[in-house]
């Protein structure tokens, strides 16, 4: 998820996407352990997207 996309989201959409990405990351970890992961880069990409969403969520609360 790009920075521009995150800026356009509302608070409820950010929370919804954050929950979805956390579930995806959880599943990626199991796939990695079992050797079934097809794209290891997805793990880092998902982690960065979670960080972006959390940052925007924190910025919105302060404003």
Summarize the structure.
With 63 residues, the protein is mainly α. The protein has helices spanning 3-7, 11-34, 41-62.
Tally of contiguous helical segments: 3
Along the chain, the helix and strand elements come as HHH
The CATH class assignment is Mainly Alpha
**Beta strand %:** under 5%
Q: End-to-end distance, in Å?
A: 23 Å
Helix- and strand-based class?
mainly alpha
Second-tier CATH architecture: Orthogonal Bundle
Alpha carbon gyration radius = 13 Å
Q: Enter the CATH topology name.
A: Helix Hairpins
Largest sheet: none
How many beta-strand elements? 0
Report on this model:
The protein is mostly helical. It has a single domain (3-62), classed as Helix Hairpins (Orthogonal Bundle). It has three helices and no strands. It has helices spanning 3-7, 11-34, 41-62. The protein is elongated. It starts with a helix and ends with a helix. The model has no long low-confidence stretch (mean pLDDT 90).
Secondary structure: elements and pairs:
Layout: H1 3-7, H2 11-34, H3 41-62
Helix pairs in contact: 2-3
Question: What are the salient characteristics of this protein?
Answer:
63 residues, mainly alpha, Helix Hairpins, 3 helices
């Amino acid at each position: 998820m790009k920075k521009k996309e995150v800026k356009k989201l509302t608070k409820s959409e950010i929370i919804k996407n954050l929950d979805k990405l956390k579930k995806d990351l959880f599943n990626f970890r199991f796939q990695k352990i079992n050797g079934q992961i097809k794209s290891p880069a997805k793990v880092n990409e998902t982690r960065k997207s979670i960080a972006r969403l959390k940052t925007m969520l924190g910025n919105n609360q302060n404003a």
